[in-house]
Specification:
The complex is a heterodimer of chains A (about 270) and B (about 250). Chain A has 6 helices and 10 strands, in the order αααβββββαβββββαα. With about 270 residues, chain A is an alpha+beta fold. The radius of gyration of chain A is 23 Å and the shape is globular. Chain B has 5 helices and 11 strands; from the N terminus they run αααββββββαβββββα. In chain B, α2 (about 35-45) runs antiparallel to α3 (about 50-65). Classes of the chains: A alpha+beta (about 270), B alpha+beta (about 250). Chains A and B meet through α1, α2, β3, β10 and α5 of A and α1, α2, α4, β8 and β9 of B. Chain A: It is found in: Cytoplasm, Cytoskeleton.
Chain lengths: ~270, ~250
């Protein structure tokens, strides 16, 4: 199983769906663990009753059916599919509405879904907030730059309440998967894809309410991730390319030529003392 | 989130050849420098030595050539680059620089034997003169720009041309790959340049492709893939002019 997870981390992210399918076929006995531990781009389903789309993940799945956050009904239909308790369902409905607004503000489009459930140990509750945006020419892309572009964010929050002190302990694990492909004539095909994961824990007063607390945490996390992605996707990969092949016209302290010069200068200085 | 216990508890077992195909697919897609870790994982996931050996036997030759692996030649004369241009057969590769043939074990990624090449595998003395000077200039360039890259020049067309006035093609290959697990990164740069020299028309046509792959995996898995093609024709003055052009794509 660990070998399978290691493989998932090494395979090119653009092939991650195929990698996961292959592993599921090879290790069917581990399928539930594989599905819950590996991150895949979110799939979309349509709720006819509410005329809205929703996102599919392990947390709204029961067998092969998925529950819509709008109608709370399973599709394909399931007679006694798992449902959240009435209080949790109310929180879930509010959360879906609030995050739809958040999503529209930050993403100018896209699809969001929130699912709430009670964890196995019965203490507190957990929620996942999913956001998906397709930025390609065919999707919501406004500027027409990307041939393919997909942002998938999965935020899982575990909440434990301390009623005595009126404090909530929030543990947030977030993963953003980003895939970009451009193919303009001048520079040829270029694709960058992958995911990063971060965690954050916080103790917040229960007064503003769970939705407000979770919302603020997620907003903060998404901003951090967005900046992190910038640095990692563009900064780090550029660094890797530079170590592979230096641009010869540029003199920098870390380049081969630069290092040789540095050594020479230091030697000269040492000798002249 | 809950799993239903259903009749699907008896899982459908994959056929052997399907398992081998999957193992092979994973090996072929291993990122630069990570094939041995991927191989270890595939071995565990297939849970059958026999199937793993089969997958490795099929995958490694393809992987090694696609990724232009370079192997140390046992007689100490340097490294041999495994590419499609130097491939004589499944386990023998030509090294034009030393005019020898290397026999390799793909799965172990080791060169087991080196022997001098047959005359029929080598270009004529006339073409070799050009190949040699391109190679010499190339090695200096690669040393400056790539720090650890490997390169080779093959004659891929017209190797029997004996005198001036004919046409022949040299293929220049550069490959640099790096893997630094403690920095969580790896990558590979491959350049393939085909230079078609027509002495009658006094032209050299250059066709090049550069492919880059970069992988960064601290707290995640980000991979970049890009490639770019170039095309140009220059008039022959001195062959080194062509190489100077190749420096600044």
């Amino acid at each position: 199983m660990e070998a399978a997870m290691d493989l998932m981390r090494r395979m090119p992210p653009s092939l991650s769906q195929q990698a996961l399918d292959s592993l599921l076929a090879l290790l069917p006995a581990h399928s539930s663990e594989l599905l819950s531990r590996s991150d895949q781009p979110l799939q979309v389903a349509y709720d006819e009753e509410f005329d809205k789309h929703y996102l599919l993940c392990d947390y709204n799945r029961d067998g092969d059916s998925y529950r819509s956050p709008w109608s709370s009904k399973y599709k394909p239909e399931l007679e006694d599919g798992v449902q959240p308790s009435p209080e949790l369902r109310k929180l879930e409905q509010e959360a879906n509405e609030v995050f739809a607004i958040y999503r529209d503000q930050y993403y100018e489009g896209g699809i969001s879904s929130v699912y709430v459930w009670e964890p196995e140990d019965g203490k507190g509750f957990a929620a996942c907030v999913l956001i998906k945006k397709d930025g390609s020419d065919g999707g919501d892309g406004r500027r027409g730059l990307l041939q393919e572009g997909a942002w998938d964010a999965i935020h899982v929050v575990e909440v434990k309440e301390d009623q005595e002190r009126q404090m909530g302990h929030y543990c947030l694990t977030s993963t953003v998967m980003l895939a970009l492909t451009t193919a303009n004539r001048a520079s040829g095909p270029f694709s960058l894809s992958g995911s990063i994961t971060r965690q954050m824990e916080s103790d917040i007063s229960l007064e503003p309410g769970h939705l407000c607390n979770m919302g603020r945490l997620i907003e903060e996390m998404e901003s951090k991730l967005r900046n992190g992605l910038d640095q990692v996707y563009f900064g780090k990969t550029k660094e890797v390319v530079f170590t592979l092949r230096e641009p010869l016209g540029v003199m920098s302290a870390s380049s081969h030529v630069g290092q040789t010069l540095q050594r020479m200068i230091v030697n000269d200085l040492a000798h002249s003392r | 989130m809950e799993d239903r216990i259903s009749e699907e508890d008896e899982y459908e077992e994959l056929a052997d050849d399907q398992k081998v195909a999957i193992g092979k697919w994973f090996l072929l897609n291993a990122p630069p420098g990570q094939v041995s870790q991927v191989a270890k994982d595939v071995r565990e996931v297939l849970m059958d030595e026999r199937l793993y050996d089969q997958a490795a036997k099929e995958a490694f030759p393809e992987y090694n050539v696609k990724n232009m692996i370079s192997l140390e030649m046992p007689d100490g004369s340097g490294q041999v680059l495994l590419t499609e241009f130097g491939q004589l057969d499944r386990s023998r590769y030509l090294d034009p620089r030393t005019a020898s043939v290397a026999v390799v074990d793909h799965v172990k990624q080791v060169c087991t034997e080196v022997r001098p090449a047959d005359d029929e595998d080598l270009p004529s003395a006339y073409v070799e003169g050009f190949r040699f000077s391109v190679d010499a200039a190339l090695m200096k360039y690669v040393d400056d720009a790539f720090q650890g890259g490997e390169c080779s020049v093959y004659c891929t067309k017209g190797k029997d041309v004996e005198k001036s006035g004919g046409e022949f093609e040299l293929t220049v290959v550069i490959c640099n790959s790096s893997y630094s697990p403690k920095n969580f990164r790896g990558g590979c740069w491959q350049s393939v340049w085909r230079v078609l020299i027509n002495e009658e028309l006094r032209t050299a046509t250059l066709q090049g492709t550069i492919s880059v792959n970069a992988h960064y995996f601290e707290e995640g898995n980000v991979q970049l893939e890009s490639s770019r093609k170039f095309n140009d024709t220059v008039t022959l003055q001195v062959l080194n002019t062509c190489l100077a052009y190749g420096h600044h794509p």
